Amino acid sequence: MPDRADDSAGPIYVGRFAPSPTGLLHFGSLVAAVGSYADALHQDGTWQVRIDDIDETRAVPGAAEAILHQLEGFGFSWHGEPAYQTQRKSIYQEIIGKLVSDGLAFYCDCSRKDVLAAGRKGPQGPIYPGTCRKMPPQEERRLTVRLKTDQASIKFSDRFVGQVCQNLAFDVGDYVIRRSDGFAAYQLAVVVDDHLDRITHVVRGADLLHSTPRQIHLQTLLGYGRPAYGHLPIVLDDQGRKLSKQDKARPVSANAPVPSLLAAWEFLNQPAPDSPIGTTDEFWTFAATNWNTTSLPDPEDNLLDNQTEQD
Ligand SMILES: [Zn+2]
């Protein structure tokens, strides 16, 4: 890890929570926030909040402020001011441009339908058939940019899941780092953000487990360090789908925060408190001491196969 190894004065643990401002926090997002914050507290780390608002087509006005207000109500305390992806758009575009000029990425004018028709079916969706890699279209501001993948296997050890291995070319294919509407894709933005924010530990929902090799691949190409990853089980609805703000999943209320915190704690199979917990401060003091990653439920039990790239 070339970047952080040099920085011996830097903190040992910097964690983060990165909600999208598409609606209020629901129980699923609260579980991810609780796991991430408890892990940071337990390791005497710092914890940051970042608003993942790069997809401006989905951002709901006022949602970012509402989420921060909810987090305060649940007693989360973050380091510094929250970062916003929309304030980094020019940085993302510059990096995308450099990846193209270095021959690591290419413009693509295939439609979703083209890819579906010509692509092989992969576990994460259709595999890009390589059409524009061989014959790229003229550069244009509003064209998809895809990163080239190769047959090398990407391996990493997830703190909670164990060994994960993915062959990007076979399992994912050349993937989108800039969308056809010109916005940086999630995979690119998250990698740049974690680097800029000097994140050392990523704790998030297991719906992103199979995106992690794409992010590691980008980190390698950009010469960034790799944070430690830990993926938590995700909360599913009655139909076995991930709770989504778009589905108007029931938001959690910060008016009576302790029962929701305890429910999230219990979902993560954490040790029950011996004595009643009355305040959020009491909860977080208890959580900081008692957080135990070895009792987390196995996230592989509830992984979804058909998530889309932007979810
Ligand atoms: Zn194409």
The computed structural class is alpha/beta
Mean pLDDT value = 89
Number of helices: 11
Number of strands: 12
Number of domains: 1
Low-pLDDT residue spans: 1-7, 304-311
Cα(first) to Cα(last) distance is 29 Å
- What is the CATH C-level name? Alpha Beta
Secondary structure elements and pairings:
Layout: H1 2-5, E1 14-17, H2 27-42, E2 46-51, H3 63-73, E3 83-84, H4 89-101, E4 105-108, H5 112-118, E5 120-122, E6 125-127, H6 131-134, E7 144-147, E8 153-158, E9 162-167, H7 168-171, E10 175-178, H8 186-196, E11 201-205, H9 212-222, E12 228-232, H10 257-267, H11 280-290
Parallel strand pairs: 1-2, 2-3, 11-12
Antiparallel strand pairs: 4-7, 5-6, 7-10, 8-9
Helix pairs in contact: 2-10, 2-11, 8-9
